[in-house]
From TrEMBL:
InterPro entries: Arg-tRNA-ligase, Arg-tRNA-synth_N, Arg-tRNA-synth_N_sf, DALR_anticod-bd, tRNAsynth_Ia_anticodon-bd. This is arginine--tRNA ligase. It comes from Streptomyces luteolifulvus. Its EC number is 6.1.1.19. Residues 4-92 form the Arginyl tRNA synthetase N-terminal domain.
Length: 350
């Protein structure tokens, strides 16, 4: 069972509780499942009981126990444990590792994206300043990934080099009049007057402007260009390039990826499973920095795994090698998709 399938299973449990008169609430459109936090257990956990408790007029633990009874009957679930104030922890029958990797392979770079348009129309209005426009552009991309319809405007016409070098796009400029109410005005801490992000090129400049939170001053330095571990952008792009190189090398060795258990990669699997939630939070809070930091987390988690993906010497490819290769390829897909939402390319070679 993949995270998406589990989310739908939990949603069906809510509907059954509502249809059976056990809960009197509006059924949410989506349920978020993520790796268990401290004190949790199992493969995935959800806080849906805490979300429904107040509108249902019942204690969170009572709501959690109601949903637990329905989830225990669901195919593919072996155990459901309620912890803390009402977190529902779910153990799956089949390998959660393989299910997650299969889901990423199926969705490709759209892993974590909404299944369909929500119909929500958001208008982002940016100050006439380079960082504001880059942030608005990235926020628009992330919102679209979550099913929103997005219109971006700017206080004045963007400078031509902002468009040519950094790829910013706005639908209109001038007055923020639009067919929808103004959603939010993008005004992060601007680029220092003496700094010139354009000299860094598109990838490094966009990263320098998007990686810090909006209330933090960006650092426009050559550190974003150096190819070493201290540069977070390099680590993300290097991790992606390594996964692509492993896929090429595996093809030369005539063995293919096959999802399976990878217990040694717990932190990486947790980060990949958390990717849809991160995209949703980045969209809700209009904060592409959340996605940028998450990509660094994913890259740092996969790099220690990569030396063990291919067989060494006379060693024959095993099921463990195939599973690690599938996980590495899935990780590369997530890194490439995340960078794309930030407007940054993911080269296969570095």
């Amino acid at each position: 069972m993949t995270p998406v399938e589990l989310s739908r299973t939990v949603l069906r449990a809510v509907r059954r509780a509502v249809d059976g008169g056990e809960l009197s609430v509006s059924v949410p459109a989506r349920v978020v499942v993520a790796p268990p936090g401290p004190g949790g257990c199992g493969d995935y956990a959800t806080n849906i009981a805490l979300q429904l408790a107040r509108p249902a007029g019942q204690p969170p633990l009572r709501v959690a126990e109601l949903l637990r009874s329905h989830l225990l009957d669901a195919h593919g679930i072996t155990d459901v444990v309620v912890t803390g104030p009402g977190f529902i922890n779910i153990s799956l029958q089949t390998s959660a590792d393989a299910g997650l990797v299969e889901e990423i392979r199926r969705r490709g770079r759209r892993y974590g994206f909404a299944d369909a348009s929500t119909g929500q129309l958001s208008q982002l209005h940016a100050a006439h300043e380079l960082r504001a426009l880059v942030v608005a552009d990235a926020v628009g991309r992330i919102l679209r990934s979550q099913g929103a319809l997005v219109r971006t405007t700017c206080e004045a016409r963007p400078e031509p080099e902002w468009i040519d070098v950094l790829g910013v796009h706005v639908d209109a400029y001038g007055s923020p009049e639009a067919p929808a109410p103004l959603d939010v005005t993008i005004r992060p801490v601007p680029v220092p007057a003496a700094a010139d992000p354009l000299r860094l090129g598109r990838a490094a400049a966009r990263w320098a402007l998007l990686y810090p939170a909006g209330h933090d001053r960006p650092r426009i330095t050559d550190d974003h260009l150096v190819q070493r571990e201290g540069n977070p952008l390099f680590r993300v792009r290097y991790a992606h390039a390594r996964t692509r190189a492993l896929a090429r090398n595996a093809a030369d060795l005539h063995f293919t990826a096959e999802p399976g258990p990878t217990p040694e990669a717990g932190s990486l699997l947790a980060a990949l499973a958390d990717h849809p939630r991160i995209l949703g939070a980045a969209a809700a809070h209009r904060s592409p920095d959340r996605l940028a930091r998450h990509l660094v987390t994913v890259a740092d988690a996969v790099l220690p795994l990569l030396p063990s993906v291919l067989p060494r010497g006379e060693e024959k490819p095993s099921a463990a090698h195939r599973a690690r290769l599938a996980l590495a390829e899935a990780t590369g897909t997530v890194l490439a998709g995340g960078l794309s939402l930030l407007g940054i390319d993911a080269p296969d070679h570095l």
